[in-house]
Structure formats: C-alpha cells, structure tokens
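Input (structure):
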C-alpha cells in the first residue's frame, strides 16, 4: 500500500530541514538530537502508578534500569525492554512514553535497560548487559512486584536484536524461561543485499548507509558479525527458543530479515505471531504524535504480551 500520508508529511518536513545523515555528524550530536526529538514524536505520555530507577549489577559495572509499575494488583508479569537506536543512541528517556504505555496496557512491570552503547562499548557489551538485566529480573522479580514465571523480553530495532539474543541465550542456558520475545522491526542480520534494503535504501528515515554505519560502530570486526549474538538470523538452530511476536514495517530496510526470522522460528516449531504494518516506516512505534497508527503497534504489542503471560511459560 502507499506510504502512510502522515508519515509522508513527516518525512517531507524532515527533508526540508536539511538534516545531515547520522554517519556525517558527531555521535554526541546524534544522541542529543535523538533526545530532543523523542518527546516531540511520541507526544503526551500516560500517567503510571510508579516509576523508579535502580542499578543492576552488570559485567562492567552497574546497569541503569528504570522500573515502570502500573496501578494493578501485584505480583505482575515482567517485561525487560531494550531501547532502539542502532546500539549507538537512545536511552531510558527516549523510550519513556512507550514503556509507560506497555506497562499500563498489558499490564506488567517494565524494566527498561540503559545498556552500554557503541562506539565506546563494542559488541558484545550491549548483549552482555541485556542478558545481565534479564537474569536479574528473573532472580529478583518478587522484589519489584513481579512474577519470575511470567517473564518476557522485548525491544525495537537494535533493542529487538538484543531481545532476540537474550532469548537465544536463555535457550542455551535453559533459564530463565521466557513467555515471549517481542521483536519490533528488529535488527537480525548484517546482509545489506536483501530486497527490502534495495527497495527502501533511502528516503524512509532509516537508510541502508545508516545501517552500515551502525554495524560499523557496534561490530566493526566483520568476522564477528556472523555470531548469533550479533546476527540472530545466523543461529544454526532456533528450536526451543521463546515464543515470538515479530513486527515489521513495509517501508523499512529491515523488513525482509524480520520476515525471514519469523519464518525460521515457525519452521523450528516456535509459536510465532507475525505482523507487517503496511504503509509505516522504521521507528513508527515511537511516533504517536506523527501517526495514530503507532497506537496500533503499541496495542498489538500489549495484547501479544498479555496473551503470552496468560498462557504462561512455554516450557
């Protein structure tokens, strides 16, 4: 279908501003712009019962983690959430509105993770931090008003990559048992020749060249990119990983790798819910002030989490 008219207007406005691509400006400037734009693109955030920041022990020191608790009887299910931003930018603040909405609408406790980012911290730093908070949430669920037997991981873009990696590690370690991996237009491979990379190479927000740059920051050594902890789609066997919900967008370079991962999961016998949002671009889930259809993705995510939690752990 055609590009969503509200998305078209947004992209045209961005082009008129003459913003330089991420790979042509200092990382600090890109991070600052991401922080400034996030609240404008999300709009008004929902009220929630409680928000508090904690420090979780990690492999290189404490990991900042923000806990969102809705006004619901505890103990609640727990979602460990990893923000997007190409492993380079994004923060607890850029994803504050989304995490509030997921916590309220599921309902569940959301643990949003301030993992280490590139280029200061290369692969596998982000994946290691994601795993540390995932295991901490399982071990300390009762302390945060959660249930260890109702645990999920999720993320958007690079955060979806980290969620998929956490699910693979949980399968390898046989713990913790996850009810769901929520993958919102995830990064799953480093193959820039897929048809969606060609078709959506430029003009839709996230570009092919930007993705090349993000990979160069996070995993500069080409030989490491085939590791499943970097490219989950390269995992030789997906049997036994957590049930998945995989969301993709039509005008996104990452569309095909998301579809490929969903197919491989299903072929491996993993319960997999797959949705493609026609007319939308990468980043749409954090753009309710740009398009009302962002709420469709948010509500679908909350519904998938709610149903997975109700069904309980798969194994």
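Output (sequence):
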């Amino acid at each position: 279908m055609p590009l969503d008219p509200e998305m078209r207007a947004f992209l045209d406005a961005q082009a008129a501003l003459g913003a330089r691509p991420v790979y042509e400006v200092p990382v600090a400037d890109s991070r600052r712009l991401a922080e400034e734009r996030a609240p404008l693109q999300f709009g008004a955030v929902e009220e929630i019962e409680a928000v508090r920041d904690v420090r979780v022990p990690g492999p290189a020191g404490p990991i900042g983690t923000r806990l969102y608790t809705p006004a619901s009887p505890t103990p609640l299910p727990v979602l460990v959430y990893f923000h997007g931003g190409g492993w380079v930018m994004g923060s607890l603040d850029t994803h504050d509105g989304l995490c509030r909405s997921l916590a309220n609408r599921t309902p569940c406790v959301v643990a949003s993770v301030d993992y280490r980012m590139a280029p200061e911290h290369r692969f596998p730093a982000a994946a290691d931090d994601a795993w540390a908070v995932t295991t901490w949430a399982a071990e300390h669920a009762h302390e945060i008003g959660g249930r260890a037997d109702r645990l999920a991981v999720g993320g958007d873009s690079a955060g979806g990559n980290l969620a998929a990696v956490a699910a693979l590690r949980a399968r390898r370690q046989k713990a913790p048992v996850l009810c769901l991996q929520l993958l919102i237009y995830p990064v799953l491979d480093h193959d820039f020749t897929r048809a969606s990379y060609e078709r959506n190479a430029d003009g839709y927000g996230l570009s092919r060249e930007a993705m090349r740059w993000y990979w160069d920051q996070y995993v500069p050594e080409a030989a490491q990119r085939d590791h499943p902890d970097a490219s989950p789609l390269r995992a030789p066997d997906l049997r036994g990983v957590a049930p998945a919900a995989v969301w993709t967008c039509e005008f996104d370079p990452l569309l095909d790798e998301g579809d490929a991962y969903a197919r491989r999961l299903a072929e491996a016998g993993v319960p997999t819910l797959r949705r493609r949002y026609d007319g939308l671009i990468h980043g749409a889930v954090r753009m309710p002030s740009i398009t009302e259809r962002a709420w469709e993705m948010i509500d679908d995510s909350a519904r998938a989490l709610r149903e997975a939690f109700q069904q309980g752990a798969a194994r």
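Notes: The first strand starts at residue 50 and ends at 56. The mean pLDDT is 97.
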